[in-house]
Amino acid sequence: MKFTIMSLILLIIFQNNLIGQEKNSSDKLYKKAKQIHEKVITIDTHDDININNFTKNRNYTQNLSSQVNIPKMIKGGLDVAWLIVYTGQGDLDEKNYDKVYKEAIAKFDAIHRLVEVYAPDKIELALNSSDVKRINKSGKKVVMIGVENAYPIGTDLSNIEKFYDLGARYMSLSHQGHSQYCDSNTGEKDNVWLHNGLSEIGIKAVKEMNRLGMMIDVSHPSKESFMDMIKYSKAPLIASHSSARALCNHSRDLDDEQLLLLKENGGVVQTVAFAGYVNIEKNNAYRNAKKVVLEKIAKENGFDILNWKERNELSKTDINIYNNRLKEIKTQANPLIAEAVKKSPPVNVSDFVDHIDYMVKLIGINHVGISSDFDGGGGISGWNDASETFNVTYELVKRGYTEKEIAKLWGLNLLRVLDEVQKIAQEIQNKNN
To answer: Which CATH superfamily is domain 40-279+349-432 in?
Structure first.
């Protein structure tokens, strides 16, 4: 009996020691991660914007509901946000080109108002890697500009230089639908293609972007378009927000052949924290679990949940009324949803870093980066807005990445590509002069 009691006491002591060791180890990793996160430059290459958040009375100096704004960047230690000039896809005609060109210019203007009028003491626009490092050293946050979809360029290639002069340092040639420049990944749904890759004007656009020093973004174009861009570009490419197709079979992700070609090209893939591009099955199970509860609560309250098409048909007044009521329904449903999703948890930071691990092993630490697609559908459990940015660094530290490697993933790889693209542009311009 004495032996049994003594054994039990020793076992408890041993277990407590193990728990203490694990806690100490965890504390050390957390402290290490904090130190690294504060030292490295953290760059998120894809953050969409709503121009309603760029007014005198409502802007990014405030902690808005947007996933990205200055207070959230400060809290999470996000140094650089690439704000996106996005325009949707429409018919390929001059009337629509003119319309979306004006929409694009409005977004450029909104970003410039932020950095030049509303918060010049807090955030500044960068045009190259030297700017990024200088602004970061000053203590201010950094904005860079990317263009998602070349559709608003129309067929006038001189507009590319206009966008460049406004600060655009990368652009994708298509989005959700085939553009005048190239086919989109969306063609995989019906196997209907417009150009079978780049169009003739698309090839010219690639050459013009090379001449200017604007990075070419391959995240939305089709695989054939990607292949053509590899063929015709004299400069490295970037995927501003894509992950590994081997881990998530979605057309927005890059397969191994594309990743290896991107490595050979000297480019970089910015792993994206978009749940549906990280783990489709897990995300669908989570969303379905939430949907069942939300629809039940909505029905009990006599509220109809509309699809996106139905919402877009509402007037501004009606959509505000709808959104406010939906918010009330969600608040009521949240406790039940929290219980329901215990069996179907959301895609999280660990799932996200699995993609980083995979791509680092396949193509090397020098060709992988990080992006969120915040305010454009992105966000995962643990990194659902800029205020939670540190959690990505913490997960990387827990997996054994060194400070040097984390610095590359968080931004140095992307800046290296930008430097090379701009160097090649200078060489092309010198040759043409």
So the answer is: Metal-dependent hydrolases (3.20.20.140)
